[in-house]
Structure prediction request, 169 residues.
Amino acid sequence: MPDSTLIFEEVQYPKKGIWFLTLCIAAIVWYGFIQQMIIGIPFGSQPAPDGFLTFLFVIFGVGLPICTWRFKLVTQIRSDGISVQLTPFHRHARVFPYETIQSYEPMDYSPIKRFGGWGIRINHFGETSYSMNGNQGLFLCTTKGVFVIGTQQPEALAQAIEKATNGSL
Prediction:
């Protein structure tokens, strides 16, 4: 959307608890890798083979922290539509042009009950959720389906849509 005007943007990051869990997992893997691969002392009473420990180190000691560091939900209200991008899972933003939006409203919901958690989720009703944390969102009914976009500022998001569409939705 290079020729559209940005009206509102919200960027959400993982909560500190996710970072704490990620760093604890990474620290354990780093400790085991350094102890077994560098110092030469087997890690644990039944140590994993060196190749498998290296695999765990790459995935959980390096990859998981990098993925968590890049993890964010960017929601933009632009003059030509609503843009949602959950990195690193979306290479490009998911765009909802205003022409396809039939209705929208701010809402409170339980991501765990309605979608089974946060992230990109599809429930048994066919609704799709893009959420990072919290229990507030923007309910979007479009010609292509029903979507819930997680936000910490649902009223501001709705006001920005009103501004962008001049109240025509």
Q: What stands out?
A: The domain at 6-11+75-165 is CATH 2.30.29 (PH-domain like). The longest helix spans residues 16-39.
